[in-house]
Amino acid sequence: MQSLKFLVSLIKRNMIILILTILIIINLIFLYYNNNQQKISSKLKPRYHFYVVAPNSVDPFWREVRLGVEDAAKDYNVVVEFNAPKFNNPQEELKYLDMAVISNVDGIITHVSNGLDFTSLINEAYNRGIPVVTIENDDKKSNRNAFVGTTSFLLGKEAAKLMIKATKGKANIAIIVSNDYELDTVSQNLKINGFLSAIKNYAEMKVVKIYTSKMGILSAEEITETILNDEQNINAIYTTSSVDTLGTAQQIVNQNEVGNITLVGYGDSESILRYIRKGIIYGTVMSDPYKMGYESLKALIDIEENNNVSTFIDTGVKVLTTYTLYEESLQNRKEINKDE
């Protein structure tokens, strides 16, 4: 009888322990699930709402900028609104910037067009506590927090290095700069100054004339035709915009001057890359649009979370020639073979 009572008591005690153990396990599962749900919820909820203003939505350059911004937005779990007129229109660009300020977003990335008062809007954003990062074109007079891009002086300098290499330091050069109203004339002048600074020690390299294009490709073609018919023996051309680079290349082809005229330009559109591969354009220089987009958003994150960022974030210069394109192609093939 005593044994039976002891056995019943033991069973009851074990049952209590078992029930308590089950309750503890259920509680732990609940806590784990709840924690996970909170983590998932915090991941799903965007940390910030940023706003990007670009000069247009069709230029491949700005599409790459957008791609960089959007990839950074995924990495840092933020929402980004990307707004731009279809074609260059500074008035509309300014309107988008105004909308961003009124919306009281967490941060703004903006291109700055020449000739319009972006400064007061950027300062208004600053006064409201909205950090502003300028991209490609800067506004040093404003209270922007940082500029992301490449100095135009350096772009001109790198273009001159290409020209020196292509002509072996002997050339009569024409420069074609764009006078499109949306471009910063200060930036264009800095490109020219950078170019001139790099060739100044080469006695047999001379800039014969600087031309200004006003109507895009057609104008660049007309200017190139004038250059080719000129009697000043110009044998090299430097263009500072992708539109003029394309127009000049096309006219060199039309006039059967491939091999006689060295062309150094700007940009990396598919058409420009095709001209480089065919040897019609010796090479081009440009800012790195993807990196520019990515770094500009990363700069806003640094401002928001560390209240600190460099006022100038240099994204470097991309130099494109037949050699660099070949090297890039070779690297891509290696990556594909490695994945296989």
TrEMBL record:
Recorded GO CC terms: cell envelope
Annotated coiled-coil segments of the chain: none
Signal sequence range: none
InterPro entries: Peripla_BP_I, SBP_2_dom
Domain Periplasmic binding protein per the UniProt entry, residue ranges: 50-303
MF annotations from Gene Ontology: carbohydrate binding
Keywords (A to Z) from UniProt: Membrane, Signal, Transmembrane, Transmembrane helix
Gene3D superfamilies, alphabetized: 3.40.50.2300
Spans through the membrane: 15-33
UniProt subcellular location: Cell envelope
Broad class of the protein's primary localization: other
Family to which this protein belongs: Belongs to the bacterial solute-binding protein 2 family.
PANTHER family for the chain: D-ALLOSE-BINDING PERIPLASMIC PROTEIN-RELATED (PTHR46847:SF1)
Protein name, as recorded: Sugar ABC transporter substrate-binding protein
Originating organism: Thermohalobacter berrensis
